[in-house]
């Protein structure tokens, strides 16, 4: 199995370039044939030197410009000397097989959609995230790439999510649902009501409406929603997790016995934390672009970057993008793209 | 301070009438002048007798019909002999000052809107829930009463949420936000972009867009959203909480030390659980009806019912509904209802 060449935007993210470069060093030992470290050549080489690394699999590509975390995403298309644009161009030109960035999420999406480009049948690439539950994982898609969606977009997300669950998570015949309120067909908002009958036609294992409670219950393998709802759920979940930990800590502080208890519990809690920790996942994929595009948290450290590169490698070695192109043809009814609203 | 008379639907909920009646008995000792126990007279009286209760503050009102948990909500308007309808009618007619039900949520909403009726300036009563965070509470409104909303509805939710935070939670000059993705004005879906400029005009302490991460962070006191998004967040949060507890338990099972640790931690965890437990809150209010309407979880036990009656009493003694009517006049710009889309 040949390993891919991955282009990494070394200037994006809160801890760039230091942690990004360290993540690349770490990943190069396991997950990639070549890593292109794109960014300020001098700074990157200084870090490599300080870390004592001389590895021909790590190739520095100079970029003199950067994209700020709060710049309008479309700026990246004008800033052709930016590390993100150049990294995207390496993928577009076939020099690299996938992109990893911890930078401005909107700008990474823009590069994925307009520099690397979407698979022909996919109108709107979407972000899918595999959320943990006691039985396994559930893919929530879209979690932020597409704010206002039409029924046909949710239909495409369903096929994309199906492919993700099957090819990457190894779930056979994944159970697909549409996020709504109320279980029965006919319950939900206008978008859900219009999308439901289309989803029934696809030949996916479509179980109908999924409710909020299904997201972490393991009752569905794929849940589709528009990027507005999905993004809010994702961020609310993160925030709830942090709030719970903080509130429990406050309670523990009040009692010595509880402090001892917490100490004894630590290894079990750390095992749990591993399941929930974003640095373990590393990155979430923009699904539907022609090549793997992995977006990591702005707060990504070296470990998160290493794991993001691992994710890109998984998508490459599983031929995800080729399988998605084939599934889009297989499941989309003839003429559907043109006729569906 | 005079206590209210509360009408309780004794036939709604998974544990009706047993737990509902017990909750009424419990509450009658503290929170109400009179409780009307509406439902199957014979069954209710049997429970009262078995519990050895003779209290003239507990008045049984017979209803020969019930509303099933999965019936179409509008059925309640036809079933005028149902416990829920009769309880609502007692409030409508001024015999009781507030309604509590653990029954079919949609049917309770229907009774609130169409039997008890909305405050004149409120077009759409909404469900507000006070979610815990490390610093206090944040009101999320609407969490399920209104699926598809227009900008003017979100504006009304903002005034309702403001009044809830100020009068019930005791928060002065509450910080109000609109749920969106991205912090800056102009970010979000079409509904948010249209609502934002209207919210700026109201004279509320409007801070702009709130993101998913703000829901449990204590950065806002009131966050408005449509009932589709709000309901999904509420249920996803519940489900995430349960999943986390289950996953941590699985880890604890694997180690003896962790088991001992968990045992020592128990009191602290129980304190935390109290903060998060729906039976402690008891019920969530339908805000904007003319009188307090409190909906409890279908799984409500006696304690939840007792606390729901307590919530109804709080709304009554704080004159919430009168203050809301006055705030609607104070904050809604002249002619806004007619002219806003």
From TrEMBL, chains A, B:
It is found in: Cytoplasm. The keyword Lipid biosynthesis applies. The keyword 4Fe-4S does not apply. It comes from the Bacteria. Pathway: Lipid metabolism; phospholipid metabolism. It holds the Pfam family FA_synthesis. Keywords: Acyltransferase, Cytoplasm, Lipid biosynthesis, Lipid metabolism, Phospholipid biosynthesis, Phospholipid metabolism, Transferase. GO terms for molecular function: phosphate:acyl-[acyl carrier protein] acyltransferase activity. GO terms for cellular component: cytoplasm. GO terms for biological process: fatty acid biosynthetic process; phospholipid biosynthetic process. Its EC number is 2.3.1.274. Its main location: cytoplasm. Gene3D superfamilies: Isopropylmalate Dehydrogenase. It catalyses: a fatty acyl-[ACP] + phosphate = an acyl phosphate + holo-[ACP]. Belongs to the PlsX family. Catalyzes the reversible formation of acyl-phosphate (acyl-PO(4)) from acyl-[acyl-carrier-protein] (acyl-ACP). This enzyme utilizes acyl-ACP as fatty acyl donor, but not acyl-CoA. Homodimer. Probably interacts with PlsY. This is Phosphate acyltransferase. The lineage of its organism: Bacteria, Pseudomonadati, Aquificota, Aquificia, Aquificales. The gene is plsX.
């Amino acid at each position: 199995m040949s390993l891919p060449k991955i282009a990494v935007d070394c200037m994006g993210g809160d801890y760039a370039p230091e942690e990004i470069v360290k993540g690349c060093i770490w990943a190069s030992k396991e997950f990639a044939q070549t890593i292109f470290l794109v960014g300020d050549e001098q700074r990157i080489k200084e870090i490599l030197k300080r870390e004592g690394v001389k590895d021909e699999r790590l190739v520095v590509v100079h970029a003199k410009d950067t994209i700020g975390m709060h710049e309008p995403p479309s700026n990246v298309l004008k800033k052709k000397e930016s590390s993100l644009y150049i990294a995207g161009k390496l993928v577009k030109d076939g020099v690299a097989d996938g992109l990893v960035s911890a930078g401005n999420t909107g700008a990474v999406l823009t590069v994925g959609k307009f520099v690397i480009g979407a698979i022909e049948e996919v109108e709107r690439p979407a972000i899918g995230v595999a959320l943990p539950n006691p039985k396994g994982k559930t893919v929530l898609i879209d979690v932020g790439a597409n704010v206002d969606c039409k029924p046909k977009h949710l239909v495409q997300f369903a096929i994309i999510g199906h492919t993700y669950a099957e090819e990457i998570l190894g779930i056979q015949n994944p159970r697909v649902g549409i996020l709504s309120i109320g279980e029965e067909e006919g319950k939900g908002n206008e978008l859900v009501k219009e999308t439901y009958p289309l989803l029934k036609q696809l030949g996916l294992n479509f179980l109908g409406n999924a409710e909020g409670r299904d997201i972490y219950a393991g009752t569905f393998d794929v849940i589709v929603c528009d990027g507005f709802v999905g993004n809010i759920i994702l961020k609310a979940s993160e925030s709830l997790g942090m709030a719970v930990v903080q509130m429990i800590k406050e309670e523990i502080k009040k009692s010595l016995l509880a402090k001892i208890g917490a100490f004894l519990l630590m290894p079990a809690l750390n095992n749990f934390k591993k399941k929930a920790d974003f640095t373990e996942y590393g990155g979430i994929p923009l699904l539907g672009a022609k090549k793997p595009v992995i977006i990591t948290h702005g707060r990504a450290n070296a470990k998160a970057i290493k794991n993001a590169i691992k994710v890109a490698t998984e998508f490459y070695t599983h031929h995800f993008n080729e399988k998605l192109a084939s599934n889009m043809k297989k499941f989309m009814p003839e003429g559907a793209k043109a006729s569906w609203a």
